[in-house]
Amino acid sequence: MKVSVSHKDGMQFEAKTQNSSFIIDCPQITPVEYFLAGIITCSATDMVLMPKNQNKTVTDLVIDGDAVRADNHPRKFNTLHLDYSFSSDADDITAARWVMASLETYCSTINTIRDSVVISYSITHNGKKIKENEKMISGSGSKIDMGEIESCPS
User: Fold this and answer.
1) Within 83-130, where are the H helices?
2) Domain of 76?
3) Alpha carbon distances (Å) from 31 to 36, 45, 51, 105, 127
4) Which of 29, 86, 98, 150 is 20–30 Å from 58 (CA)?
5) Is residue 64 classed as helix, strand or coil in its secondary structure?
């Protein structure tokens, strides 16, 4: 994977990937906010594609992320809480497994930071809170086999 970032004007930068490009307009959206949005979007794609591969549908998906950063530079994330809210035509156990499979196995951005960030999550499925402040086990990740899934290229 290659990305090239070039300075445009003021605090605007253009990021070019192999497939596209986009403007990073600091301080409108900071690089750390892009980073957190990328982490969340990685899991969001899993939350759409895993159910699809099981002939299920997820609707009204919202994932809120709340990161707490260190006070001193380089101001790394200390904690990250992800709050998943969605509806689906699956039972609560299956819905929770989708979230856990994304966190533990499929989402490469979350698994890139998991050794240094305390990650927790909550799940609201079909309007009902089914998990609250669950801690993700730190370390190298575990294999939760949900089969092959189509995903955004990484």
Assistant:
1) 92-101, 108-113
2) 31-135
3) 9, 21, 31, 25, 33
4) 29
5) strand
Helix, strand, or coil (residue 83): strand
* Residue 147 falls inside a structural domain: no
pLDDT tens sequence across 84-105: 999 999 999 999 999 999 999 9
**For residue 149, which of 63, 41, 47, 62 has the smallest C-alpha distance?**
47
Q: What distance in Å separates the CA atoms of residue 111 and residue 134, rounded to the nearest whole number? A: 16
Average pLDDT, the chain: 91
Query: For the whole model, what pTM was predicted?
Result: 0.86
State both tokens at 4: 């090239």
Considering the domain boundaries, does residue 24 fall inside one?
A: no
Residue 71 dihedral angles phi and psi, to the nearest 5°: -75, -30
Instruction: Kindly state the DSSP code that residue 106 receives in the 8-state scheme.
Output: I
* Structure tokens belonging to residue 16: 């070019």
The token pair at 34 is 């892009």
Asked whether residue 78 is domain-assigned, the answer is yes
